[in-house]
Structures are given as C-alpha cells and as structure tokens.
Design goal:
single chain; 439 residues; mainly beta; Methanol Dehydrogenase, Chain A; four-stranded antiparallel beta sheet
C-alpha cells in the first residue's frame, strides 16, 4: 500500500511540475515552433518575468540553442564601421565566435573563435542558430564557415568546411543564412554553385554524399532553410529558391518537381509550410506562392494555385509563419499579423497590435504553447496571446530585453529566441538573457 501511495504521489508531483524539454535547433526540436512543455505561466508577474541570468555577447542575428544543460550561441566582434545596410559590400575585419554556456547560470564552458572578413549587407554577424544532434554541435557562420563540434565540456572540432569554397559561388548578399538540417546520417545545407545549390554531407565526417540543383550567376543560392515534407507517402526535400520552387529526393538529390518563382533580391527566408495538399511560401516585396501537391504518372508533382496575388496571403520577411487547423498565421513585411484561409488565400483578419504599429520588415517570432501563443517582437516584448480564424486576443505583455540593433530609423531585436526547460533565452547585440517562464 505504501509503495502504491508513493508511486501515486510521484505521478501527481510530476504532473504538477510539468514536462520540460530542450530547444536544440532553429524553431525547436521538430523545427515547427511548437513549445511542447507544460507548467508554463498563464500571465506575467508584476514587473514582468524574472531574469535568471545575463551574459555578455556581441552582434548577431543567430538565435541560441539549448540542449543537455548547455546553451550554444554565436556572435561577431569588429571595430570596423560599415554604412547602414552596407549595400556596397564594404569589407569588415573581425572575429566570429561560438559559445558553449552553462544553462544554469550562463557561465562560459568553452569558446571557439576564428577571424572572418565579412562583406555582406547587414553585416551584424552570424545568421544561423546552432544545431545540436547526436552528440555533436553544428554552427554556420556568415561567410560559410560550417563547423562540427563534439558536444561536451571541452572544445573539440570534429570537422569543418567552408561552403563558399565548396560551392564556388561566393557569399549571398545577406550571408549564409539557411539553417542546416539533420536527416538520418546526413547534414543538408545550401552551398551554391554549379550543380551544388544544396549538398548532403555525412554528419559525422563532413564527407560529401550528394549535391543537387544549381545556383550560379543570376540564379543565386538564397536563404530558405532545407525542409522535408511527406505527401502521398513520399518524402520530399522542398527548396524555395530565388527562381523556382523545387522538390528533390532527400536520399539522392534527384529532382521530383519544380515550379517557377521569382523572389526579389533572392529574399526567401521562411521555411515552406505544408497544409493538407497545399504548400505555401513567400518573401520580400509582397511575393507569395501557393502550390497544390499531387502525383502524375505515379510520381510526385506540383501545380501553382496562385502567385503574388495582391491583397491575398501575406509576405513574411524575417519570421516564420505557422499553420494551425488549416489556417495560416504570420507577420507580413508591413508589420501586420494576418490570418489567411487556405487554399483561397483570403485574409480573414489583420492586426497591428502584436508589434504595435505598421513598420517595414516587421518582426514578431511566433511560438505555440498549448492553446496559446508566445510572440517575441522586434521591440524586445514577449507577448502571450490567442489566435483563431475569428481574431487575435492579447493576454499579457512584458519587455524582456532592450532592442539595440539599428535599422533605418528604429532599433530592433532580430534574433529568434529559444524556449526550453520553462525558460526563454533571448539575445540582442549586447547580452543573452535567461528568463523564467515557469508557472
């Protein structure tokens, strides 16, 4: 009887504590921006959520990754000054850094740094979130430095490559920004160049497994992360390239289908979203596209439903949209949050309330937790709200970090946070903060 009561007590205690989980890569464990933990606060305490620790970092758009008691984050240090936007590609000399921090207090476990000359637009440092998988940590720098570290308390480099050299196509206008993907024994990443728009490397050795497609000359590599979907029982690696929406076989790199698409400045940053038989993507300058997936002659196929349809869909720039129960939600480049019906593309509603007004390249990262959503805005606000086809409902809001990255006439935070173990980890160009979000 005592054993049964003790077991019941432990079960009840575990339920009350709630489930904890890591955030080992961009958009979380399953790359879907769904925060699966329970035991998360419903509203913020007076004065906002408690900051558990702060650690100094430099400039970067790279978000943190959290895994196995460690936090991994990147930055860039330089004394050089470039004109705003740096459209002429003025070269900066500096140091790119990778940090492994203790999740409990933010103290440094190890650090790796290497010299890098950056000549990209918006030269604020690395773009990609570190990826932790299978006892290894993978980082991708602004100029294509891809490094595999052994996960642990001591720094150990397992292998490293430079994508700029591998593809031979140079650095994209805004740097290497497409988050690599682990699939089985492969690390899949955009590289660029003739026949190597995308490559699959052995995740343990860095050796080339296959390369596919082309991005050279006017057909540049772009910024869309490699994304695997399954439709009709077939796994498809979908690539939203600057000049085409294409799917390939993730095991061989062989093309499955392609549809034409033109992205302004090659700017497609979001990961394509599948909703039933439909696949959505879009980017800068009011560009968007909806495909219907199917099969032709027993092979996967796709056809365009609508493209760049004025007043329909939306055009995400810095942030990832989300589909919930067939409705697409996302922040447009104008700073408004939209709900979009698929496949029609009809806008069900719009609101400026999340960011607080219309703004160019409006940014609010969206993460789902249970039946509500957390929005991290470019102003450093963390917002709790609800979304439905009927509208947006704000529950609470608190400022958790200072926006200090200058863009045009405003200062912003343009880095995706991590949500792990009942905490949020967010960074600006000066510090990384750990915020308590436990109930």
């Amino acid at each position: 009887m005592l054993v049964r009561m003790t077991t019941l007590t432990l079960l009840l205690l575990t339920a009350s504590i709630g489930r904890a989980d890591d955030w080992p890569q961009w958009m979380g464990k399953d790359r879907d921006n769904v925060w699966k933990e329970t035991g998360i606060l419903e509203k913020f305490p007076a004065g906002g959520p408690k900051v558990l620790w702060r650690t100094k970092v430099g400039g970067s758009y790279s978000g943190p990754a959290v895994a196995n008691g460690k936090v991994y984050v990147m930055d860039y240090l330089t004394k050089d000054k470039a004109p705003e936007g740096n459209w002429q590609g003025q070269e900066l000399t500096g140091i790119e850094r990778v940090f492994c921090l203790n999740e409990k207090d933010g103290s440094e476990v190890w650090k790796h740094e290497y010299p890098v000359k950056i000549a990209v637009s918006y030269p604020n440092g690395p773009r990609c979130t570190p990826l932790v998988s299978g006892g290894k940590v993978y980082t991708l720098g602004t100029e294509g430095d891809l490094i595999c570290f052994a996960e642990g308390n001591a720094k150990k480099i397992v292998w490293q490559k430079n994508l700029k050299t591998m593809g031979g196509n140079g650095t994209p206008l805004w740097g290497f920004a497409a988050h690599p993907l682990i699939d089985g024994n492969k690390l899949i990443t955009l590289a660029g160049g003739d026949g190597s728009h995308i490559v699959a490397l052995n995740k343990d050795t860095g050796e080339l497994i296959w390369k596919a497609e082309s991005s050279n000359g006017k057909d540049e590599v772009g910024y869309c992360p490699p994304t695997i979907i399954t439709h009709g029982g077939v796994r498809q690696l979908v690539l939203l390239k600057p000049r085409a929406f294409t799917a390939i076989d993730p095991e061989t790199g062989k093309r499955l289908w392609t549809q034409p698409y033109t992205a302004d400045n090659g700017s497609i940053i979001m990961s394509p979203i599948v909703v039933g038989d439909y696949l959505f993507g879009g980017g800068w300058n009011n560009k968007n596209l909806l495909l219907k997936l199917g099969a032709k002659d027993g092979k996967p196929s796709a056809e365009t439903v609508w493209k760049d349809k004025k007043g329909f869909g939306f055009a995400p720039v810095n942030v990832q949209p989300m589909a919930v129960d067939g409705t697409l939600y996302g922040v447009d480049q104008n700073g408004k949050l939209y709900a979009v019906e698929l496949p029609s593309g009809k806008r069900l509603w719009e609101t400026e309330d999340v960011i607080g007004g219309p703004t160019d390249s409006g940014t609010a990262f969206i993460v789902k937790n249970g039946d509500r959503f957390f929005f991290f805005t470019e102003k450093g606000d963390l917002v709790i709200g609800k979304l439905s086809p009927k509208g947006y409902e704000e529950i609470d809001r608190a400022n958790v970090i200072k926006p200090n990255h200058k863009v045009s006439r405003r200062t912003v935070v343009w880095s995706m946070p991590a949500f792990a173990n009942k905490k949020m980890f967010a960074r600006n160009d000066e510090e990384l903060v750990c915020v308590d979000l436990s109930k």
